[in-house]
Structures are given as C-alpha cells and as structure tokens.
Amino acid sequence: MQSNVVTLSDGGGGLKDVNWGVVNNGLDFLESSVQYLARSDNRSLKYAALHLFASMETLVKARLAREHWTLVVADSNVPTKAAFESGNFRSISLGQALQRLGSVADITVDGKDVERIKDVEKLRNRAAHFSLAGETPERVKVVVARGIDFTLRFIEKWLRPEAPIGEARLIDETLERVREAIGRIQVLVEERMKSLEAELASHLFVLDCPACRQGSLVLSSDQAARCLYCLYCPGGEVCAEEYSASILEISRYGHALEGVDWPIHSCLNCGVEAFVNHIYTAGQEEVGWACFACGYYVSTAEIEICFGCGSPMDVRGGGTSLCGDCAAAKFEKF
Q1: CA 208 and chain centroid, separation
Q2: Which of 67, 118, 159, 243 has the highest CB neighbour number within 10 Å of its CB?
Q3: How far is residue 282's CA from residue 226's CA, in Å, rounded to a whole number?
Q4: How buried is 249 (Cβ within 10 angstroms: 0-12 exposed, 13-18 middle, 19+ buried)?
Q5: Residue 19 Cα distances to 14, 168, 199, angstroms
Q6: Can you give the pLDDT at residue 218?
Q7: What angle do CA 90, 95, 101 make, to 5 degrees?
C-alpha cells in the first residue's frame, strides 16, 4: 500500500482524512478494470483481473486505515508514523484486512462475497505469475464482474459514507465515469442485477435509471431516489430533471420550445421541486406521481391539476378545480 502524499491524522491514531493517493489509486484500478472488461479480448481480461484485485485490496485497506493506521501494517515491529505515511512498510493481505475490519469496525463480508474475492485473487495470481491458460473468457468475465459488483457495494456501504469531502468527491467523480461503461458490459449487468433481485423486490416499484438505464432506480420513504445498480444518487431535484430528460424525453429546453407540459412540480409532501408526473416502472407500466426527493407517491387518479396555477392537487379527500392558494386568492378578489 504505497503512498507519496502526507496523510493527516485525527490525533487519536485513526485517519480522519484518508490519503487521497491511496484512495485515488484504488479508484483508478477499478476504472481500469471496468474498461478492460469491456474490451473482452484475452489480454484485456488479464488486466481486468489484475487491476480489479489491486482496487479491492487498496480500497479495503484504505477503509481499515480510517480505524487506525497500524491495523494495515503486517510487520511485528510497527514502523513510525512517518514511515507509514511514506509507504515504507509491509502491509497485510486483503483477507487479513477484511478480518480486521470485522473485528474493529463491525464490517462483515458474507460468505458469498468472500468466495468472489477469493476467485478474483486466484485469477490475479495466475495472471501475475503464470497465465490464464485453461480459463475460458466467459468464466474470467463472470469472476471479474462479480468482483466489481462486490467492490461497488463495498464503496457504497463502507467507503463513501463518512468520507471526507475531498475523498467523497473523488469517489463520486470516478463512479460517474464508470457508469456508462458498466451499463455496456452485459455480463456485469447480469451478475450485478442478479445480486440485487431481493433488494429490488422489496421496493413498491422500480424505475429505469437515467444514468445507466438499468431498471434499478428505487424510491424509498424519506430518501432521495437512488440507483442500486450504478449507485447514482445526485439529489432529488437533479435526479427528477435527468429522469424527465433521459427517460420521459422532456427537457427544459424542449418544454419551453415545443410547449410540452413540464412533468416536474413541487412535492405535496416535502415541497422540493422533484415531484414527477408520468413515471413508469422498469416494465413500462405507468404508476402515477412520485417525488424523487422524499419518495412520496400518489397514483394518477388521486391527483388533479389546479386550473389556476397548474400545480398538482391531492384529491383523495375530494376537492375543487382550484388549489388552496388559488381558491383563497379568488375569494379575496370577490
């Protein structure tokens, strides 16, 4: 685990600001692995395996170092902090890092993911020291795809939360770059979507993601819309507008130029301008209105548009053709 960038300590031994050099290396290897996997020729698949294992190892150790820098050190004689910050030490294995994360940070990797990590490590060892002779390209693709799936989930669940601002930005920028490539890799799509089946089934409905176009954008109560597949989660207003432009094919420019009804309004629940009309499930079934900021959902039959201002109104308890504000204004006028 090498680094040439000085790491700031929080004073208690934990790494408050994880070394950008280390995290950046891990994210670079991840992006490179995705790019090589997309090419699919034998040479590229070899580097996809090599770079993926390097990414997994680096990012897991970076997360462990947040707990305490000495946890990453393998030597019985722990080096000085200066030696650690310069990368002049021998680090533990990926397996040891995962065990220590479980012990000190309650980060547990289930048995299925442990097997995925081991499979990638075997490929990496063969590619680095011997060859991948005897391995079919299809198997290599599946193993690497499963490893990328684990790495994305590890980033989402354990690395991105509570990350310092700069590191979080670095993670988001990398994920933004790899989303399109991820969507093009069919084997990765199949493996990752398979791993998400249970979680996707737990949601009332699932939408197409405007970033990767997979049927994996979910709306949860009191949460902004997020894609379980590519980890897209830009915030309610941005997601609503991108959903309108990419999935409904109604942009602000087209709305103004062609006079098409704008499908986004202020939410009746949270007030954020992320309440979208004509949302469709991934199976192309229209399900009504939903807020991409707070998850509030209402069917089409339960909403009417105010004749006065064009805002949506909840008419489940009965109602008029005017919203409260327009009705009050009309009453004051008379």
Answers
A1: 15
A2: 243
A3: 14
A4: exposed
A5: 12, 12, 33
A6: 95
A7: 90
